[in-house]
Here is the input.
Amino acid sequence: MSSKTRTLLTGAIVLCLLPFVFQAIGLTATTATMVVILCIATLGLNVLMGYTGLISFGHAAWFGMGGYAAALLQKNFLPDQLILPVIGSMIIIAAMSAIVGWFILRRRGVYFALLTLAFTALVYTVSYRWTALTGGEDGLGGFTRGFIGPIDLANNFTYYAVVAVIGFGVLYALLRLVHSPFGTVLVAIRENQLRAEFQGYDVQRYKLIAFVISATVTGLAGALSGFLHYIVTAESTSIEFSGELMAMVVIGGMHAHILGPGVGVLFYILFRELFSITTSNWMFWFGLIFIAFVMYLPGVSSASARRSGAGSGRFRRKAPP
Here is the structure.
């Protein structure tokens, strides 16, 4: 059995068992659905962070905008529909991320990361203050999950099944992507961008495509989250939520395995749901664990060392013959 087949089989088994396992430990199908949605979002973020080596503090912007776009499309043009608003929101996010990426990808390293941070702050401010469009601090509601043919998606287990199928499709598509020649070039850019340029690759074009794919997948997760909760709020575009997405990716391992971000999501959600019952200071303990992950997880430290030295080869002293 190939590694791709094992990965897909593992993903399918987890998706089938997840709601029943969660019910057995006292959680709900809604929580299980949110886990799958966050897995989709972090898989999208990992395309940028794990495979291309671009640190983004701003992916909550795409998550929230995906939710707003899908909700507005249903409320104004596609009543009682779910699939068409979700597809429409993905098209909108792809177009917007192509424009934004064309500008901010002109900068590298910390400057790129700061630009994504500034973009998220801008989106959050607009979402919070443009009350006529987004509902402001009250959020945007008044939409439904609708139907897929005769299937009523108001039932939580039915909606979980739909989200799980979409999540499996995203996993399959991204697995094909990262194992394709395109994915190999992304890894080459992550390891040594200058060398990739010398080999004739249009690095900016590859990074822009990766940025658009990453943002669109995260926007898809945001649209599904909006329909899960029947509301989209400005908090879904906040810097704090961007940090949570990054923490999930880092904990799961950015370079270890494509399913790594999903492990990070499970750890974060279970830690929050179970520890918040016993203490209101669960974020303090999570912060300590996260620091330990960053300091001692081999994949994180080694990758950081490689990137810090990748562009400094001209300053190294050559070894004696």
Remarks:
- The longest strand covers residues 147-148.
- The radius of gyration is 20 Å.
- The chain has one domain: 3-237.
